[in-house]
Design goal:
Blueprint lengths: L4 E6 L7 H15 L3 E6 L26 H10 L5 H12 L2 E7 L7 H10 L21 E7 L16 H14 L4 E2 L3 E3 L7 H17 L14 E2 L5 E2 L1 H6 L28
Parallel strand pairs: 1-2, 1-3, 3-4, 4-5, 4-6
Antiparallel strand pairs: 7-8
Helix pairs in contact: 1-6
């Protein structure tokens, strides 16, 4: 445990923000446990959010029909990605645990963090056709989202106006983190800290600090294993997997729900 390396990918403009306090708590508590904690402060770095040909050193292979995924894969193979991308990939390669700390913008991550995802998790480095989901490149690493919302928890419920938070999190946790192979820890959600008193915000941070004490021992969220799908048939669930779960009340996951009720809180709590 003492050798654990943590990368915090942090996106907030203000050092006085709640997100900054949450980031600082992670650095302090995990550091006290012997972890080496590195922070990528995206706004301080002025990290470029746009995925362009500037991310490649030298000439691109096909100037007439530029394909970012293909060109950056080749550039990664040849060591010709831009310096800022290579530095973030170096940090990620060394990390055992990645924490994404951010305020939720429009039901997703801020643009600067999406730029980090687009530019750093390049084809070849972070995923291939053969290495993704449960067989992904980063299957020996853990990752999690830690974020603030602008809406109350009730608004993100199954009956709330914003819709079920489990559905909101599926593209981020399954489509990005799990896709790259990460073992995804349950998210740390700070519900609307800007709408509560200072004492309540202190309680939120206290709960985060408590969780951080045992974070490295937590079990990840559950996702359907890659070998449950038949690649020869469009990556559909194999018949035997469908038959096994035929009588179950809930679908397998939020995304692969088989037309059934969604498994409750499967993107928020481990073990469900």
């Amino acid at each position: 445990m003492a050798a654990t390396k943590v990368l915090v990918v942090y996106a907030h403009q203000s050092a006085g923000s709640f997100n900054s306090a949450a980031k600082d708590a992670a650095v302090e508590v995990l550091g006290a446990q012997g972890c080496t904690v590195d922070v990528s402060d995206l706004y301080a770095l002025k990290f470029k959010a746009t995925a362009t040909a500037e991310d490649i050193v030298g000439e691109v292979k096909n100037q007439d029909n530029f394909c970012y995924a293909e060109e950056t894969r080749l550039a990664w193979e040849e060591g010709k990605l831009s310096e800022d991308v290579m530095e973030e990939q170096r940090k990620l390669t060394q990390a055992d645990l990645v924490i994404f700390q951010f305020p939720m913008y429009w039901f997703s991550v801020p643009g600067i963090m999406k730029g980090w995802i687009d530019r750093v998790l390049t084809s070849g480095y972070a995923f291939t056709q053969e290495k993704r989901y449960s067989q992904g490149v980063f299957k020996d690493k853990k990752a999690m989202l830690s974020f603030t919302t602008g809406s109350n928890e009730t608004m993100f419920s199954a009956n709330g106006i914003n819709g079920d938070m489990n559905v909101t999190l599926w593209p981020l946790q399954n489509g990005i983190l799990h896709y790259c192979g990460f073992q995804v820890l349950a998210p740390q959600i700070f519900w609307a800290p800007s709408h509560v008193e200072a004492e309540a915000r202190g309680t939120m941070l206290g709960g985060w600090r408590t969780r951080l004490q045992g974070l490295l021992r937590e079990a990840p969220l559950s996702f359907t294993p890659s070998d449950s799908f038949d690649g020869a048939k469009g990556f559909q669930l194999k018949p035997e997997v469908q038959e096994k779960h035929e009588g179950q009340e809930f679908g397998l996951t939020v995304g692969t729900h088989q037309g059934k009720r969604l498994p409750p809180n499967s993107q928020i709590r481990a073990g469900v």
